[in-house]
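Standup notes
- DV: blocked on the single-chain target, sequence here:
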Amino acid sequence: MNTLIDKYSSQGSQADYLSELAGQVLGLCRQQGADQAEVSLSEDSGLSVNVRMGEVETVERTQDRGVAVTVYFDQRKGTASTADIQLGSLKSTVEQACAIAQFTEKDTASGLADADRMATVFHDLDLWHPYAISADQAVEMALQAESSGREFDRRISNSDGASMSHGDSVAVYANSHGFSGAERSTHFSLSCSLIAGANDSMQRDYWYSSALRYSDLEAAASIGKQAAERTIRRMNPRSIDTGNYPVLFSAETARSLIGHFLGAVSGGALYRRASFLLDSVDTKLFPDWFSLLERPHIPRGFRSANFDAEGVATCEQHLVQNGVLKHYLLGSYSARKLGLQSTGNAGGVHNLDATANAGDLNEMIRNMGRGLLVTELMGQGVNAITGDYSRGAAGFWVEGGQIQYPVDEITIAGNLKTMFQAIEAAGSDVDLRSHIRTGSILIGNMTVAGEA
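- DV (later): unblocked, structure below
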């Protein structure tokens, strides 16, 4: 093992080293008599700084390593993990996984994904953009974001701080089918959160930028300015009369609606029968014009991948097409439990594009005429089994196609199944800071609880 470490440090790349190490771990599993085995290895490093009111609060560097081993003996499964890559520790980890498998029940759905589903084509996804940032540089960027926000308007009275972080990740997955795949990516993030007003009339808001390449980040001064504008805009909020109104979710809140849908069509919820969308494949759940397209191979996409967490090849596919659910999101285990095939979604969905049939947010506000614009959601009032939806919200009241005043201390409620059918428009103002790529979403009618 020391020879391999020396080879890595002098010649090989980090991904090559982890791939070779994965092969050795699989060899140890074979020696223990495992029918099947899989191993995941990762190395991550990063820097994170936080500042507040012009002072540095934290500077943190991270360096993490992990090895997870899973073995199968006649469909009995054992898993163990370690952060130590020395040969003795790896042998011990494999032995522990094998020992655990001897005490588990046979599960006919367990085992590796089918061998013929393994990825064989590896696109260049443009995810690796290392850029050296010192702690001093990161602190300066965070301070600049905060100061530009605090200086923007004298009503900005306080700060929740600003943060800058970046990280590198290299991961390898390999299994006894002979599959071995490596992924490496970088990530950068800069955010600022500000407070306006005083005493009981204080309001808070924020803005952030997130990217896989440093040069794609928004400028620090721009982030601070947008955080300040959003905070000032929320001052002196009112409540509104309880009633039924159109509700327009801004892009950053709209993706939570898609997130609830993804949870309901995920294999784990379905085979446990804990979803309000049981037996819904080929059912019309959304309006005719609405589609959700999974695009795993977008260059520099936040969730781009050539293979899923089990090595199954990813592919472009409609999750929803013309309003109809085309398939569930399945890994091999949940697929077998349901009598279906993996969809290449072990570990979750990849980049998901929502259809837009409207203009930007301003145009959608004009077309809505009268209703509620939601810019913040609070609480976890969503029942995954029934689809009942009730969450605290804040945003703006719209009248005559224009924002009139900020609102808070309200609750919006409905049922997700009904809400999906009631989507009237999705905007072109797509928020690209997530793998769920959607613009603002207008739901034609929801219950809004404000003043009695």
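- Follow-up: The chain is about 25% helix and 35% strand.
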